[in-house]
Design a protein that fits this description.
By secondary structure, the protein is an alpha+beta fold. 24% of the residues lie in helices and 30% in strands. It is built from 5 helices and 11 strands. Strands 1, 2, 3, 4, 5, 6, 7, 8, 9, 10 and 11 form an 11-stranded antiparallel sheet that branches.
Length: 201
C-alpha cells in the first residue's frame, strides 16, 4: 500500500533512518518537511478532488479560513480511499519508524483553504490525544512574498518558515506549551490549500 501513495525514495530503509535522525535534530521541537512526498499523479488527483468538497468559513479572533468536514465523512470515493490510507496501520507504522512516537488512534483529516488576508495565529495544538501534527500542502506557485507560510516559534521569535509548496508533507511532535506555530496571513489571490490534522494516541 505504501508504494501506491508514497514516493519510493522515502521508503528506503536508509532514508527512513536518516529521517528519524533529522526529525529529532530539528529545533525548536522535532519536525520534518518532506518535499515531493507522495506519488505526484496520486496527489494531483487528490488536489483536484478536494476542490469539489464543501468548505465552510471558520472565523474567530485566532483564525480565518474555510474548512471541510473530517474526510472520514466524505462521499468522494478517491478521497475516502486516501483517508483510509492515512489512517491505515501500515502508514502509522511507517510514521512510527521515523518519529518513534506511538500514535495508532484515529487520524483527524480536514482540508483547509486560506484566501487573501486569512490566517491562523500562534497556538500549540495541545489536546490530550494529539501526538503528531501533519500538513499536506496542495498549494501551487506560492512564493515567499505570497504569505501563507507555516511558521515555527521559539518564544516570540520565528525560527522556521515553511513555504506551502505542492506535495510537501510537514510533520511535528505536539508538545504542550512548546510547539507554537502559525499560518501567516495570505497576501495573494492564490488559494493556500492543504489537508491537515493529527495522529492521535
Amino acid at each position: 500500500m505504501l508504494n501506491d501513495y508514497i514516493n519510493e525514495n522515502y521508503l528506503k530503509e536508509t532514508k527512513i533512518k536518516e529521517l528519524h535522525l533529522e526529525f529529532n535534530k530539528n529545533k525548536n521541537f522535532p519536525n520534518l518537511v518532506l518535499k515531493d512526498f507522495f506519488n505526484n499523479k496520486v496527489i494531483s488527483r487528490i488536489e483536484k478532488e478536494i476542490r469539489t468538497e464543501k468548505f465552510t468559513k471558520q472565523e474567530s479572533d485566532l483564525f480565518s479560513f474555510s474548512q471541510t468536514e473530517d474526510l472520514l465523512n466524505t462521499d468522494n470515493k478517491i478521497l475516502k480511499k486516501f483517508y483510509k490510507f492515512l489512517n491505515s496501520k501500515e502508514f502509522k507504522e511507517y510514521v512510527l519508524k521515523i518519529t518513534k512516537i506511538k500514535a495508532f488512534g484515529k487520524i483527524d483529516a480536514s482540508a483547509f483553504i486560506y484566501a487573501k488576508n486569512e490566517y491562523l495565529l500562534p497556538h500549540d495544538d495541545r489536546l490530550e490525544k494529539r501526538k503528531i501534527a501533519y500538513v499536506i500542502n496542495l498549494s501551487k506557485e506560492f512564493t515567499n512574498e505570497d504569505g501563507g507560510s507555516l511558521d515555527f516559534f521559539e518564544g516570540k521569535r520565528i525560527i522556521k518558515s515553511i513555504l506551502p509548496s505542492f506535495n510537501t508533507l510537514t510533520i511535528f511532535k505536539v508538545i504542550e506549551n512548546k510547539t507554537f506555530h502559525q499560518v501567516s496571513e495570505v497576501l495573494t489571490n492564490k488559494e493556500r490549500i492543504s489537508i491537515a490534522g493529527w495522529f492521535n494516541k
